[in-house]
Amino acid sequence: MICNRCGKANDESARFCVGCGASLEAQAPTPPVAPPAAAYCGRCGQGMAPGVAACASCGSPGGEGTAFCRRCGHVLTPDAQRCPSCGTPVAGAAGPVGPIPASASYAADSVPPPAPQTPPPGGNPTPGAVPPPPYYNVPSPGPYYPPAVPKNRVAAGLLGIFLGGLGIHNFYLGYTQKAIIQLVVSIVGTLLSVLVLPALAVAAMGIWGFVEGIMILTGHIAVDGRGIPLQQ
Length: 232
Prior knowledge:
By secondary structure, the protein is mainly α. It is built from four helices and no strands. Helix 1 runs antiparallel to helix 4 and helix 3 runs antiparallel to helix 4.
């Protein structure tokens, strides 16, 4: 038995509502309410034009079913007796139909227009049917990274031995910061070579590059600036 005050379902032998405590004996049984004319199919939820004998999408006779509200198309739970959206009684629901929920926006004289129908699978398109939009599930391409090419160990070593003071070998291997330091010190020192200290700095850059060239050839420096092993 459904309480007319709160809509709570109770046992048929109950005398008082378990939800609000109201007497169930004093309440008159709720008269059955005929379901409205189907604007939506109760089986698949597709819109139905008035007067059609069966759903054009699933073939349900008269749009019968309890999965969707036949007035507004709202999804229904298996035990629903009224639509939680518009309050329409569910045709074929088990047990007595309770009162209209307070949150339902129900109007007895307002029936929404049928939704545009989509053609049934494998069938001919229904007049006025709206084809479904195309669905693309293609991930967007990410940034392109060219394949890493290993640097040649011999070439880097020879550049360090002969042009190490200018940091050419470090530019080649990708150690840009160290290469810029060697290049700037060598150029400034050469321009100021009339002084003792700049001349010593230029010589130090040359020795630094020569030692790094030997270390590259002997394998003590085995990777480039990106961490890729040098090619033999």
